[in-house]
Design brief:
Length: 172
């Protein structure tokens, strides 16, 4: 049984959302959307110069800026705003992770227990693990909460062996 504990503060919430954002950014759909925005630039320039459609060209530039430059800053601002509405904001989260079950409880007594098979997806990000359940329920296990590298490796192995992922979890 592996026990970890961490405070669910704004930094942890932003780190978890950043990991999910990075995963969505790497999805094929998102990549093709970005390439389509880039491909639209010369078309928009031609429309602007040849047909006087300046607003169209400006809209294409704005779409590229939103997609390539301002996506994470805007997402981070929205995530920060949502943090105060989280029921577990600022609370201590305690996990008991075993080969068959995961148990989570916050310092106010709320929490739950579920099996590895209840997860529809799980992946490791640079800041920790994201565990996905049905109905848009996600859990974040920060890397810094693990007491040892051995515990971290054990959770990594359980995820690899026990979590059955489907298409929804792969696309983020």
């Amino acid at each position: 049984m592996i026990r970890i504990s961490h405070t669910f503060d704004e930094d942890a919430f932003i780190a978890a959302n950043r990991a999910m954002w990075e995963r969505r950014r790497m999805s094929p759909r998102n990549r093709w959307l970005g390439y389509a925005f880039l491909a639209a630039l010369p078309v928009g320039l031609w429309l602007s110069l040849a047909r006087g459609m300046h607003f169209t060209f400006l809209a294409i530039i704005a779409a590229n800026l939103l997609h390539w430059v301002f996506d994470w800053p805007l997402t981070r601002a929205m995530v920060r705003r949502r943090f105060g509405d989280m029921p577990s904001a600022g609370r201590r989260i305690n996990w008991e992770i075993g080969p068959d079950r995961l148990k989570v409880a916050s310092d106010d007594g709320s929490g739950g227990e579920f099996s590895w098979e209840d997860l529809i997806g799980a992946w490791e990000a640079s800041t920790g693990f994201i565990l996905s359940q049905p109905r848009n329920v996600t859990h974040f296990l920060p890397r810094t909460a693990f007491a040892s590298q051995k515990d971290l490796e054990q959770v990594r192995q359980w995820i690899g062996r026990k979590v059955k992922t489907d298409k929804r979890s792969q696309d983020g």
